[in-house]
Specification:
The chain is mainly α. The chain is built from 17 helices and no strands. Helix 10 runs antiparallel to helix 11.
């Protein structure tokens, strides 16, 4: 009897996991979580170190004092409030445009029959296969001829036309999601006198909230993290001082030059650039995304589960 109880405790039953399996699962989850969290913890610990802590080999994780000046200096160098608002504009407005267009396109593919539908679906899937580097130069030439380079319309106009960052993925997400909505609901709305747009906004949109949350989060993060294309469309010579658009990640790339312009002769001064200042700037750059995921973590997980997709 004791053997059976011990066996059930260690190996479990059909309805309950055993102790050994739970230990294995939680060990794996802790190991995977540590791999993802380790870089952030390292950056946070380094960003709070003073120059003396950086030179002291015995100081690895816990600073002797919390050197908050690293964050105040990085805040000033990156012109954080202005850069943050510009970054939010570059990420937010194209995301909203992309949400509206891709949801309507996915609904159209799921609910309507039109000529060459299978061909257009094939083209949509083919777009996912093409590396963005191949279409980068033609897209730049097209936008340059339209006078979009150097302003936010370089991101808004393509998003409105269904050509935003990875719009094809979002169209497929909404396509698969809208196919799961019972046709009888749409037909009932049409019998009650609703037209196509009313059926979409009153029936399809409320039921597709999980897919919309996933689209907003992924699109926002992709626009936020994009550096090369943003730099290309804004212009490589785009200057923040002239009132041009910028992002926090672009300011992070220019961190050293911006720091030198503020602290002249920084190589010989006590305020010279060091690893702690760089890590402080990095933490400030990723802080909005961390806050976004922390606030919307529950909604994000539930939406991914309901929409049936996995993150990239």
């Amino acid at each position: 009897m004791k053997y059976i109880k011990a066996r059930r405790l260690l190996l479990g039953t059909r309805t309950k996991n055993g102790l050994l399996l739970n230990i294995a699962i939680y060990t794996l989850l802790i190991a995977i979580g540590f791999i993802y969290v380790y870089p952030v913890l390292y950056m946070l610990a380094t960003s709070l170190m003073s120059p003396s802590d950086l030179l002291d080999s015995s100081t690895r994780w816990i600073p002797s004092t919390l050197h908050i000046k690293n964050y105040t200096d990085a805040y000033q160098v990156m012109d954080y409030p202005a850069s943050l608002m510009k970054n939010l504009a570059i990420a937010f407005f194209p995301t909203i445009c992309q949400l509206v267009v891709t949801s309507m396109a996915g609904y159209a593919f799921a609910r309507y029959e039109f000529p060459l539908k299978k061909l257009w679906m094939g083209v949509l899937i083919f777009v996912l296969v093409i590396p963005p580097q191949i279409t980068m130069i033609p897209t730049y030439v097209l936008q340059s001829s339209m006078g979009l380079i150097g302003n936010i319309y370089a991101f808004i106009v393509p998003a409105i036309l269904g050509q935003g960052f990875k719009s094809a993925i979002f169209i497929l997400i909404f396509y698969n999601f809208h196919r799961q909505i019972p046709v009888s609901l749409i037909e009932a709305a049409e019998i009650d006198g609703a037209n196509h747009l009313q059926s979409f906004f009153r029936i399809a949109v409320p039921l597709s909230v999980p897919a919309m949350i996933v689209t907003v989060l992924f699109s926002f993060v992709w626009y936020w993290n994009e550096t090369y294309l943003v730099n290309l469309y804004l212009g490589f010579n785009n200057n923040r001082a002239d009132g041009g658009l910028t992002t926090l990640l672009l300011e992070l790339q220019r961190f050293q030059s911006s720091y030198e312009s503020i602290y002249s002769g920084w190589e010989l001064s006590p305020n010279r650039l060091n690893e702690a200042l760089r890590m402080a700037g990095t933490m400030l750059a990723i802080a909005p995304i961390i806050v976004l995921y922390a606030v919307l973590q529950k909604q994000f997980v539930e939406s991914v589960d309901k929409s049936g997709i996995t993150g990239e």
